[in-house]
Each structure stands twice: as C-alpha cells, then as structure tokens.
TrEMBL record:
<protein>
    <recommendedName>
        <fullName>Lipase</fullName>
    </recommendedName>
</protein>
<feature type="signal peptide">
    <location>
        <begin position="1"/>
        <end position="24"/>
    </location>
</feature>
<dbReference type="InterPro" id="IPR029058">
    <property type="entry name" value="AB_hydrolase_fold"/>
</dbReference>
<dbReference type="InterPro" id="IPR005152">
    <property type="entry name" value="Lipase_secreted"/>
</dbReference>
<dbReference type="Pfam" id="PF03583">
    <property type="entry name" value="LIP"/>
</dbReference>
<dbReference type="GO" id="GO:0004806">
    <property type="term" value="F:triacylglycerol lipase activity"/>
</dbReference>
<dbReference type="GO" id="GO:0016042">
    <property type="term" value="P:lipid catabolic process"/>
</dbReference>
<keyword id="KW-0732">Signal</keyword>
C-alpha cells in the first residue's frame, strides 16, 4: 500500500520537533505537498496501466513452472523449488545483489502453494555467520499475478526505505505472497496466508544461499505487511523457532474493520475494497463478490483481478466513496464476518519482542485502529513497544521510521534487552 498522499519527508520530520503552532504549520505544509504529489499520480485507468507496464518485468517460466520434484519426492513448507541471481532487471543501490526464489508455502487453509520472493544482499564480504535477515512483508501492490514486487524494476518499496536495510548490513528476504508472481489466487488481507508466506520464505532463502544468510531473522512489514508481520509473531509462538528474534509492524492493517470502513473523520481509501472482495473470494470459494460490491464497485473488479495493480485501482475508483463501492450491510456477509474473525489481531500471544509503529496523519490505515489494537494487545499480556509519528501519512511513516526500525532490529541481533511501553497506552 503505497504512493498514496506521500508527504514531504523534510517538512514532516520538522513537524515532530517544532512547538505546537509551528508544528501545525509544518504539518499543513506537508499535507499540501502530499496533495501535490498525489496529483502527480496517474489520473485515468489507461495512464495507470501504462505506468505499471513501464515498471513491470515479464512473468517468465521461473514463476510459472511447476515443482517437478513434488511428483516424486516429499513437499514441505519452506522447501526451495528454484533460485536465480538477477542480472540487470532491477534498479538497486550499487553493490546490492538480487536473487529470486520460488518455494513451497501454505495458504490460509494450510494447502500447499508455490510462492515467489526476492533476496537483497548487502555490498561487501559476507560476515561470519552470514548476513542477518529481515523477512520483509510488503504493503498492497494489487491482487493480480503481475503485481508481485519481484516483477517490478524498483521492487515496489525501493524508494520507501527498503534499500536502507541492505545499506545497513541487513539482508532482505521479501515474499511476493502467493498468487502474486506465481499462479493462483492471492488471498489478499489474510493474516494467516501472508504470515505463512513470510515465514517459509526465510527457510527457502537460507537453503538457496547457505552460509550467506544468517539463521537469525526478524520480521518487518508495512500496511498489509504490517498485519502479516504481526501474524508471524503469533505463528512463531506456536512454531517456537529459536532463530526468530521479533517483529516490526508498521502502519499495519491490524484493525481490518477500521481499515475497510473507517470513521468519516479518519479519511480512508475505499478503493481497496474491491481487492478485499477478491481476497475474500480467494479464501472462501462460495463467496459472491456481487453481494458486497455495487455496480460501480464491480466495474473494475475484473481488471484488478487479472491485470491492474495499485495505481490502476487508485485511478479506477478515484473520487468514489464507500457508499458508491460497497453494498449496504456488506459487513453482514458471512464470508466477510469470517474474514474479520480470522484477521483479528491483538488477542493471541506473540513470541519475542514486538514493535508497532503508526503515523498520526495516516489516511489509508487510520492510526486510531492501530493504537486501539496495540492497547488491546497490552491488556492481553502482549509486551510491545508502540510509537506514533505525529502528522505522518501512510507511506511517509514507513520512510521516516526506517532508521528507527533498523536500530531496533539491530538491537535484536545484538541480544539487547527489549523494553515494552505498554504502560503508556
């Protein structure tokens, strides 16, 4: 979930430290700049499709070929299917190398699925024990197969903090989520499906690059990936992997109802709802997307299901309200109720340290829902560190918080004590 009202980094950084009046002025300036940047986004569907095509890489047999060994041998989650080193496909910092992998994972029903991912390796010699690993979970890129970040020249988050990790000496293992890159339906906004994809990407990447990647790893994700990363912490409470060291959840969709149907004063981005309907259909086969989408809401649904990605969705539903897109009483649909229950966050125990970040000016994933979920988690005995960045919108929260994420992550690899601030919530 990105490129939506991306505010000025400099102005918002100042806003967090200035006195109240000056802070308000800086935030207003930042939001004005954010709107100007939003105005630069593709305005029409053809423009959006052309923009996405210019960034796209071809879906090659690397992504689509089956695992032939599965016919004769055993299959398990995290099993590596194939790996290749990228050559000139991506725009990455000098010295950073990129690998792609395909591996076995699980969907929300624990069915075997093939998933793709990419690996970013820092420049320089491999340290003793291998590069420490950040298992990255991306925000909404779309639901079609072509919307995989590894099929984008900039890896989707390249300019929003992702490249800062290898620059800081951290390897990145970044799942696409199954159904993106690989064939099949993407179970969009399902914390189980995305959590599995993150976890098993690490095992497959370590098998692809033995000795180059450390066995130790931390999960980190933004937006859709923020929910996925939190889910990893819940899953690891059961899996008890001793090499898992903690989770960072940034602007996570951890309160799904607040994300899908925010309060009027929270802003919100209703153009995500057709993609939520697609993900619900992928999870619950008997779900009828027409039961929750209006005629206007369904108008671009087939395009998003097969070809269009984030920019297309944004252009297709620009100016539409929730009432324009969603059927009345859509929350009463049994599949929607089941999805909301399955995506509930803040109740299950979490293994290891948890960092939860959000932006006070986020109009895509309202900060109120994130903070409420963090507060609920604390009341349920989950120890976490929570921080809100005043005035920051959705993408700037990811970009501006990256130094804090990296410092916190490096503390985990260094074995430093974790401090919870639940008492402040």
């Amino acid at each position: 979930m990105r490129k939506f009202l991306s505010a000025s980094v400099a102005a918002l950084a100042l806003a967090s430290v200035l006195p109240h009046t000056a802070q308000a002025q800086a935030q207003a300036q930042a939001q004005a700049q954010a709107q100007a940047q939003a105005d630069d986004l593709p305005k029409t569907v053809p423009e959006a499709l052309a923009h996405e095509a210019a960034l796209a890489l071809p879906i090659t047999p690397f992504y689509t070929a089956p695992d032939t060994t599965a016919q004769t041998g055993s299959v398990w989650p995290g099993k590596l299917v194939r790996a290749e080193k990228a050559t000139q496909d991506y725009t990455v910092p000098a010295g950073t190398s990129v690998w792609r992998i395909v591996y076995h994972s699980l969907d929300a029903q624990r069915h075997d699925v093939l998933t793709s991912a990419f690996i970013l390796l820092p420049a320089g010699p491999t340290p003793t024990g291998g590069w420490p690993v950040v298992a990255w979970a991306h925000g909404t890129s779309g639901v079609a197969q072509s919307c995989a970040p590894s099929l984008m020249k900039d890896l989707y988050y390249g300019d929003e903090g992702l490249f800062d990790f290898p620059k800081a000496g951290l390897a990145v293992v970044a799942t696409d989520y199954h159904g993106q890159g690989t064939p099949g339906a993407h179970q969009y906004m399902n914390k189980l499906a995305q959590g599995y994809d993150v976890i098993y990407a690490v095992a497959a990447a370590q098998a692809a690059l033995p000795g180059i990647l450390s066995q130790k790893w931390v999960a980190d994700g933004h937006s859709q990936g923020g929910m996925a990363a939190w889910s990893v912490g819940e899953m690891e409470q059961q899996l008890q992997n001793p090499n898992y060291l903690g989770t960072v959840s940034v602007s996570g969709t951890v309160d799904m109802l607040d994300f899908i149907a925010p309060k009027p004063e929270e802003g919100g981005a209703p153009f995500y709802f057709p993609m939520v309907a697609f993900g619900t259909k992928a999870r619950f086969a008997d779900f009828d997307e027409h039961s929750v989408l209006t005629k206007a809401g369904y108008a671009y649904y087939p395009l998003l299901a097969t070809k269009g990605c984030w920019f297309t969705g944004h252009a297709a539903y620009a100016g539409k309200t929730s009432a324009d897109i969603m059927q009345p009483n859509w929350t009463k649909a049994p599949a929607i109720q089941a999805l909301l229950k399955e995506d509930s966050v803040g109740q299950l125990p979490v293994k290891g340290p948890l960092m939860v970040l959000t932006g006070g000016g986020d109009v895509s994933v309202p900060p109120g829902g994130v903070k409420a979920t963090a507060r609920k988690a604390c009341k349920n005995g989950i120890k976490l560190f929570f921080h809100l960045y005043p005035g920051l919108d959705h993408d700037p929260t990811m970009t501006n918080s990256t130094p804090d994420q990296i410092e916190w992550i490096k503390d985990r690899f260094a074995g430093k004590p974790f401090t919870s601030n639940c008492g402040t919530l």
